[in-house]
Amino acid sequence: GALLVSERIDREELCGALSPCSLSFEIVVENPLELYSGAVEIQDINDNDPVFPSSQARLEISESVAAGARFPLESAQDPDVGINSLQTYQLSTNPHFVLDVQTRVDGSKYAELVLEKELDREEQRELRLVLTALDGGSPPRSAHVQIHIDVVDANDNAPVFNQSTYKASVRENTPSGTLVAKISAYDLDDGPNGDIVYSFSSHTPAKVRELFALDSATGELRVKGQLDYEETKLYEIYLQAKDKGAVPGVAHCKVLVEVVDVNDNAPEVTVTSVYSPVPEDAAPGTVVALLSVTDLDSHDNGLILVQVSDVNDNAPKSSQDSYDVYVLENNMPGIPILNVSATDPDLGRNAHLSYTLLQGDPTVGHIFSINRENGTLYLLTSLDHEDQVEFSMMVQVQDGGSPPLATNVSVSVFVTDLNDNAPTVLYPHPNTTTTYTDVVAPGTPAGHMVTKVVAVDADGGYNAWISYTLLQATDPSLFSVGLHSGEIFTARQVQEDEPPQHTLVILLKDHGEPVLSTSATVSISVAEMVKEVFTDLTDVAPANDPRRHVTFYLILAVILVSAAFFITMLSVGIFKCYKWRQSKELFNSSRSTLYRTPGPFHHIDAVRGGFTPPNFYHQVYLTTDSRQSDLLCKKPFTSSPLGSRQSTMRNGEPGLYHQIVGTAGRLPTPAE
After folding, report:
1. What tens digit of pLDDT does each residue of 639-669 get?
2. Could you give all domains of the chain from N- to C-terminal order, each with its CATH number?
3. N or C: which terminus of the chain has fewer CB atoms within 10 Å of its end residue's CB?
4. Element (H, E) at 322
5. Where are the transmembrane segments (predicted)?
């Protein structure tokens, strides 16, 4: 179980600047099966010296630069990490400059020269300084660079950046040439002293210069190399703007570039097989293989996504079990009236829903249609409230699984009424040439009902309420009409000198919107006797009417037929009443006989002896609770008493058979 080093380990080669540096491994122990995960951390030793990009650096500083001005210096690089990495810088002793060591966000160090005492070109034209970089090893390792400073005449105005820090973010797979940020500076000087050139600061690492390019004229910072989030997540880039004066003025800014991770690393799966091959009698739960999955990406890009395949185990579910839809009659064909909504929590085809109308009523399929994909219900024809008020149907919602699951939703469509029917007059009938004349005698008092206008409206509810008004009359003061009943009354007493014939025009209106109306014409005669009415009718009939001679005979025939019908019905009623009373008396006598001690002449004996006539024979064999004369099944009457008795016992009702046993106390013998 010992873990050994098989070759020389170089931390910088394995992990570079990453810290801590670790190597992961897994150990499988069998019998019993156990899995152990481990990691070996490679610790750094101080085996690398700091290194400057060049052995010397040259600066030009104007003598007019005020104290406190800062000048970035090239940074040294140390591949070691932690305490063994670059820790500080030291500057040789001089009267004008001090060293300010700064720390970047990634922990690396860089140095800046700070002018502590103003320069004087006439006193000293150049300065030579030594910058030393030290790591934190024990003993520390170091590197040196010579700094040569030329003191030049003044350039009055230095460039100024519009902001000291810029921030940007780019995806790690961003192609070369993509714009990252654009820096901008201005210089108040004219001519070459005001022309600005952008460049990387001297202490910008070489790696950054390989990955990013800066346009010296526009200040555009673009991607140059291949960015890798797993290698570096944030770049801190130092840029400068310098004018073209004899003694150029310099301004500095910082650009922070955040690298955004993309899913550019496939998961790495390590499979360790335990049983190979797997025995056919292996018990459920036996470990077959061990899987180890890693992904170099971060956050969600580094998760392993396990897909769970869907099973069609959920039936479609509607938001409502039933729908009530109200549609105005006389609708436009083809309009949508309802959208049946349903959901299915399954995935893919198992969640694809289709809608169909179940053909319970064949007329529904001719009137309604449903969109199979979205469940929209359409009306194919125009509906009529007077034809049918309600339609009921069933919509089936089915998913696309195998086998499919379905849910039924009931839909009720109610046709609401419109006022599309005018009142229809039933009496007097408007479509006939026969004149309906009502008679009122002279002297009839006020308030007497003479006749009634009968009308109906095919609409329903409020639309079918009919009001009656007197529109026109021969004498408007003689008659009035009931507003809601249509009854025509005398408004005053009928006088002897009234005109013999009165014509009334009645206006019938419903209460719909809009109001529909019709009219009825009523003729009323003022006469003492029916003969006068007939005379008036003859007078008003056309002279050439061939039916004027048969009117009297038709009326007489109707009266005779009615009288004959009444007499016939009265006779039938009297006969039925007589028969009912006869059966009731028979029932009472038979019931009292069944529940008393048998005498010398029992009704069974009467049948046996042949004394009872056949019609009475059928009447007495009744159930004890019967209230009607229900007869037994008839068979041809036989003169033999034994044949009659046997037929009676076989076809008699069970209730009677039990009564015989109870009365006689024994079963009848075959002879009986």
Report:
1. 333 333 333 333 333 333 333 333 334 444 4
2. 11-42 (no CATH), 56-152 (2.60.40.60), 160-260 (2.60.40.60), 317-416 (2.60.40.60), 424-526 (2.60.40.60)
3. N
4. strand 322-328
5. 552-575
